[in-house]
Structure formats: structure tokens, C-alpha cells
Amino acid sequence: MTALFLRDLKLSIRAGGGALIGVLFFLTVVAVIPFGVGPDLKLLSRIGPAIVWIGALLAALLGLDRLFQAERDDGSLDLMLTQETPLVLTVLIKCCAHWTSTSLPLVIASPLLGLFMNMDETAIGATALTLLVGSPAITFIGAVGAAVAVALPRGGLLVSILVLPLTIPVLIFGVSATYAAVEDPALFLPPFLILIALTLFFAVIGPAAAALALRNTAE
């Protein structure tokens, strides 16, 4: 499992720029917002957490179509389906490697973009923390879409269409927890715990559903 994790981590970084492309897209999405809403620092500070979360969500969707594509292209997907290791565990490891290479850099870059949006220290810290907790759920949800679209020649757009509606609850509670931390720290815990619960739920459901979709695709 360690070898699989390291292999997928290297492939994810090499394929299409990996983390660099995601971070650059993240920077681009957040950077254009001030030009659209104007130089109102109070407005930027108020909408900052939501914009950072939306930018991170869109950036996380970029590389999801490549989650199983390399195995499909070189034929190793058939080996994954017939090996002794449970396919669910293999998918879980691949999701963890994908999150480490694509979403974790977004979490690390979020404080810098928080400063760009004129957010205070509390908002920056809460945004980074909620992204750290909630972004794995996006990867687990995306694994299902990637598994469904892996056999299609142009499945990248389909993955985004399938995944985006399912990620809305993660976005809602991530932003809610951030705003609660800024307005009233006592209200931070409920949405934050729901965000953790969503990640744990999709950590169980996502790999299982993706493994089932991969088996149906192979058949």
C-alpha cells in the first residue's frame, strides 16, 4: 500500500503539472474577484472565505478525471480488479495520494489568498482548517465520478458535472463554519463537526462506490 501511495503521488505530480496547475488555477480564480467587485476592502473581507472555498473546490475538480485514467491506458486497471488486495482499499489509497498531491497544496496556499482578500487572522485560520478537513470529501466524491467516466474518451467534463452537485453540502458547511468562527466562535463547532462527518461518510461510501463502478466498467 505504501508503494502504491508513492507511485500514485509521483504520477499525479508528473501528469499535467499536478499540484502546480491546481494552485495556479486557484490563484487565478481568487485573483480576478477583486477586479470584478471593485476595491471595497470591507466587501472583499466579507466574501473572502466563500471565494477561497469556491476557488479551492473548482481547483480540486481539475485533476479528478486522471484518478484512474493512467491505469486504464496502460492496462493495469485489469490487474487492480484481479489482485488479492481489496479494490476498495486500493481506491482509498489512490484517493489519499491524489488529495496529497492536488488538494493539500491548495490548503497550504489558502492563507496567502486570504491576505489577498483582506481577511483577518481568524478568517484565514478558519478557512485553512475547514479546507484541510473538508477537501478530502471532495476527492472521495470525485473518485466515484472518475470511476464512472474512466471508460469514456472525454470524461473530464462529465466528472465535473457528476461531482459538483454532490460537493455542495461540503461547500455549505465549510463556508458556514468559517463565518461562524469570525462572527461567534461559539457557533463554529456544529458546522465544523458536520463537515468532519461528511468527510468520514464519503471516506466510507466513496471508495466503495468507485470500486463498484470500476468493476461494472470492466465488465
UniProtKB/TrEMBL annotation:
Native species: Rhizobium lentis
Membrane topology: Multi-pass membrane protein
The name this protein goes by in its record: Heme exporter protein B
Location in the cell: Cell inner membrane
Keywords assigned by UniProt, alphabetized: Cell inner membrane, Cell membrane, Cytochrome c-type biogenesis, Membrane, Transmembrane, Transmembrane helix, Transport
Protein task: Required for the export of heme to the periplasm for the biogenesis of c-type cytochromes.
GO cellular component: plasma membrane
GO molecular function, one term: heme transmembrane transporter activity
Sequence similarity: Belongs to the CcmB/CycW/HelB family.
Entry-linked InterPro entries: Cyt_c_biogenesis_CcmB, Cyt_c_CcmB_bac
Coiled coil segments of this chain: none
One Pfam family from the record: CcmB
Transmembrane intervals: 12-37, 43-64, 85-108, 128-150, 157-182, 188-214
Lineage: superkingdom: Bacteria
GO biological process terms held by the UniProt record: cytochrome c biosynthetic process; cytochrome complex assembly
